[in-house]
Amino acid sequence: MNTIKKWFSNDREIINIENKLKSLKRDKQYFNGLLKNSCLHSGVKNDNDWGINFWVFPSSMTDNQINQALVNMDILEDTDRGIFDDNDWDCSGKTLANKPYISKRTKTRVLVTQTWSIDI
């Protein structure tokens, strides 16, 4: 890092580079988690206050294996938190996410989706 500091005289540039490196490390951990749990693809579609997350798994995985993979990726929990219930509606501005579910199973892939919204 000291070598980088010599190249850039502006502290703002150094902070931006450090933030980009941290972001890349987080992305690497996220994608490694997907690979370890056999997730072939993932993504999100959002409209600022609501959205849909999705994950694609191979069709050779059973429903239990997919649920375990979602637990391993910290997407699905064994508790009721993250599911719409009376305790979630506290106007906190936090994201409320429904439990992920298998939307479609084909001969080659399994699509898992999760809808979410922001509590206002």
N-to-C terminal Cα separation, in Å? 42 Å
Q: In what range is the share of β-strand residues?
A: 25-35%
How many beta strands in the DSSP annotation? 5
**What integer value in Å does the Rg equal?**
19 Å
- The chain-level structural class is alpha+beta
Largest sheet: 5 strands, antiparallel
Please give the domain count.
2
Give the oligomer, counting copies of the same chain as homo and different chains as hetero: single chain
Tell me the number of helical segments per DSSP (H or I, 4 or more residues long). 3
Summed over residues and divided by their number, the pLDDT gives a mean of 81
Shape: extended
The H/E string reads HHEEHEEE
Helix content: 25-40%
Residue runs with pLDDT of under 50 for 5 or more positions: none
Question: How would you describe what is shown here?
Answer:
This protein is an alpha+beta fold and 120 residues long. It has 2 domains: 1-36, no CATH class; 42-120, no CATH class. The protein is built from 3 helices and 5 strands. It is extended.
